Amino acid sequence: MDNFYQTSSGWTFMVTEVEFKNSAIQGIGIAMAFSFVIVLFATNNVLMPIFAIASVAFTVLSVVAIMELKGWEFGTGESVTIVIIIGFAVDYVIHLAADYTHSPEKTRNGKITQAYREMGISITSGMITTAGCGFFLFGCTFNIFTRFAVVLSSTCCIAYVASMILFGGLCHVAGPQDGFGDLSSLSGFKKNETEEEREGGTHVEGTK
Prior knowledge:
73% of the residues lie in helices and 0% in strands. It is an all-alpha fold. It has a single domain (12-174), classed as Multidrug efflux transporter AcrB transmembrane fold, CATH 1.20.1640. Helix 1 (9-43) packs antiparallel against helix 2 (47-69). The longest helix has 35 residues, at 9-43. The model is unreliable at 189-199 and 201-208 (pLDDT under 50).
């Protein structure tokens, strides 16, 4: 047999599956980098985005592990879903990070306690409403909707745990305080204050 041709569509899908994987990896990298920059500018501190990305990575790995345990094939939906997960995962930690950074408290424990007190109810309510929307999709007959229900609900629940426990624990143990890690401190910029400015007064030259 001189000429042999294989017309099975499986060969085409092999190439497509590789592209799905590469696209997912690229999407994760871009989304992670974008999330890092957003948290960095929102908090003006280099430690907070590091803690936030650790929480997001934990969420993404957990949801991907759920996909693997359920035996899902890596297709178009899974490739896009993995990138979407990062948006849900970073939503909770950025609220805690911003409140922690702008807290007037001096200690790590005081800052994260205030963040829990002021943002905890909002984050919990957001998790309940978003995950609750996903629960209604479990009754659908189309496979794509039930898969989306698993991803949406598990992402919200895991992201909530990661933000409140993992991210909060990192801030409690090694969170920035006394200006440590601030971009202004790293650039060498320091605000010069006089005693009158600290007391709220105004110094006028030539007056008594």
